[in-house]
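thought: fold this chain, then report.
action: predict
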Amino acid sequence: MPTLVPVMALAQVVRRSAGRVVTYDVFPEFSIKVRAFVLSPLGILLLATGVAILCGFVLHPRVFALAGGLVAVMAAGICWPWITARGVRATLGFEQRRVSEGEHVSVSMTVSNHLPWPAWGLTTTGGFESKSIDALLRLGSIPTRARLLTRYQLMIPLRGEYPVGPVHIATGFPFGIREARRGVAVSSRVIVWPRTFPVGPVPVTDGDEVVEGNVTRNKVGSTGDVLGVRPYRRGDSPRRIHWTQSARHDRLIVCELQSNSRPVVLLVLDADSTIHTAGAEGTSEWAIRVVASLAKGWLEAGAQVGIATSGLFLPPASGLVQSTRILDALARLNTDTGVSLPELLKSPVVVASRSATRVVVTTDRHAKLPEIGSYRSVVLQSAGFGGSRHSSSFTPWLSIPNPESIPHRLRYGWSEARHGS
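observation:
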């Protein structure tokens, strides 16, 4: 008995090794395609047809009738959907040009059936990259020679311009053996803006740019309401002399007025994919939402705002048109880029904007921020956005630990926001 133990162990080793050799997949990609075809309805029917033909030769000729029935089923399952798709026309359009993430948009679809029989099992595929949206756009059946107008309410969760690709109308009726498709004409598209939040006032800057039609700020200037008084300096206008205070102190005292300046801000978005966490809830998308919030809020407050990122630069400007331009650009922005933050800060367009207040939106995956010019940093903490924890040696102007804190941090996160400008 003791002599059999090594023999049994050797047999188990040989059996395991032989099993690994026999089951080793030399061409895994080809094997995946073969398995997908064999396990599909068409593959199963083809195998059943081959077995029926073999049984017809070996067992009895009557089995050929079964093979013929299977061939008829496959022919109907392939040809019927193809003919139905050729006889159907569809047009899709959005009733709003722009919405924000999480908002509903109205979609209308017009489908015409030119066949002498009803079109069954119609669905739409593609264009939204979301199976839940594709599931909503089900058409069911279209009567004979009829034209059907259907409206849907969709909630698109992620920014972008939709449809993002070709939209098809598809049917697999009656057996689902093969799905036939036909392209859908898109009459209008929709731009989904990044989600935005209310923000605090523009940070105080040293430089002032006087622009007609702007609101006053609580900084010393030459227009607006009186902020206080000070001793007279050579060059002050006599109209600003406070005669009562001058007589009381026996020297000339002048009034200090508010500044009618418009802040100029350049938002720099660090879109380097190597320092971001991916996904709709990753730092990549939330950084875009932060930039969109700051741009929209500060433009509404009367500032001039521009943005700079990899492959995109919009010079500072003001007004509703600039807000729309920035949000459109952020909605279409491709975040798959490897341009680093130092390279971005050294770019000519950013260097030329040194007179503006520069706000850089990035993450804590930098060991330390590059010392290129002066700017304020908004740093998203990767650990709160689905990434790993990183230790950094710099103190940001505004730190954002997680998505839940963004509304409060953007509203009250800096001194001007907490105490007023």
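thought: worth noting. Residues 206-217, 219-223 have pLDDT under 50 and may be disordered.
final: tokens above.
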